[in-house]
Amino acid sequence: MQEHLIGNYSNLKGALFSEITVEKFIQEEIRHGRYDVVASTKNSLEKSSQGERKKALLNHLISQNPEYLVVDNVFGSLDTAAQIEIEETLTQLSCKIPIIQITNRKTDILPFIDDVYQLRDGKPVLLNSTETPKTLSQFKKFVETLPKAYRNDWETIAPLVKFNNVTIAYNDRPIVKDICWEIKPGDFWQLVGPNGSGKSTLLTLISGDNPKAFNQDITLFGVKKGTGESVWEIKKKIGYFSSEMLRGITRLDSVGNMIASGFFDTIGLYRVPSNEQIKIVQHWLRVFGMYKIRKQSFLSLSRGYQRLVLIARAMVKHPPLLILDEPTNGLDDCDVAILSELINKIANETDTAILYVSHRKEDKLLTPDFIYELTPNNEGSTGSIVVAS
Ligand SMILES: Nc1ncnc2c1ncn2[C@@H]1O[C@H](COP(=O)(O)OP(=O)(O)OP(=O)(O)O)[C@@H](O)[C@H]1O
């Protein structure tokens, strides 16, 4: 960044509040057993929820008395209460030290920010007070319909998910209590609840990644948990996208190959797709208007388009259940609108059930059939069903 933009801070002690920093501390825990940042639950960062991690990181950084702070995607993964709390903390801190905010959503600009710069053609341009930041891409409606079902042998599986009085605790600390919830084919569900209420815990019970599922009355894709089904069989029936996936992708796959890899449940293509599979990939590329750039590197795409491609990757096998975990975290307003449009389109045009988890206000752009809400209390979060308006 240019010196005139933020001043010369090279001799000052700075700190970075970002998901990258969270990840670095988690790596220190895993590799070197160093637990410098502890959440309010006394859990390590690795065992904490997304929101708990961010709150713990900010407290830690402030305790180190930085002389300036850079904050990146401040509100990502935070529930409304935590957003207000962190905004207040940063507002107070801004009276003592300079704060530089990086954001791609104008609604996230903190109230104490004096000057707003926008990167245009790689150069920071100062916006005057009446100008609002331009979004980077123009929102276009998807015109073409989505590909038809690739296979029909999954059509009769029901219920997709059934929890009967599911209760989970970690080290005697109750997390969720007496959860009764059923997801039927074609349903569009939104899962909501404050940070730490157990949303990810429920997702891991569904995706087969949580060993605690075995003592519980859980039915997945018509099969009772613990009666011999393999995690691999479960994963084959789930299309999954989380904004966290993007951080782990370093392979140089083309856009087309990235979508095709969804047929084989890999991220990146290691096998040769059939002609039928190639046709389905080409269909998805046309839906996105990306056919011409199908051979371009996936990593060269903008963040918003990378997510469209990864959702197509999750959908090509036409799974009975699509899980979208915080899919819009870190996106600008325009990309959020495009992504929401795609998710509504999948709900309207396919028989795949959708389970969508997010805290953000853009949820208003979505049209779920039902909302499952987790409400924390001392004995573990309880769940209730809200019929969406
Ligand atoms: N392996 C674990 N060991 C101990 N505690 C855990 C473990 N995994 C999760 N927890 C705790 O369980 C609680 C629920 O976590 P979970 O990640 O399910 O919440 P969440 O609703 O997804 O939160 P967020 O919105 O902040 O991501 C948190 O308090 C977390 O610290």
From TrEMBL:
<keyword id="KW-0067">ATP-binding</keyword>
<keyword id="KW-0547">Nucleotide-binding</keyword>
<dbReference type="InterPro" id="IPR050095">
    <property type="entry name" value="ECF_ABC_transporter_ATP-bd"/>
</dbReference>
<keyword id="KW-0813">Transport</keyword>
<dbReference type="InterPro" id="IPR027417">
    <property type="entry name" value="P-loop_NTPase"/>
</dbReference>
<feature type="domain" description="ABC transporter">
    <location>
        <begin position="161"/>
        <end position="388"/>
    </location>
</feature>
<dbReference type="InterPro" id="IPR003593">
    <property type="entry name" value="AAA+_ATPase"/>
</dbReference>
<dbReference type="InterPro" id="IPR003439">
    <property type="entry name" value="ABC_transporter-like_ATP-bd"/>
</dbReference>
<protein>
    <recommendedName>
        <fullName>ABC transporter domain-containing protein</fullName>
    </recommendedName>
</protein>
<dbReference type="Pfam" id="PF00005">
    <property type="entry name" value="ABC_tran"/>
</dbReference>
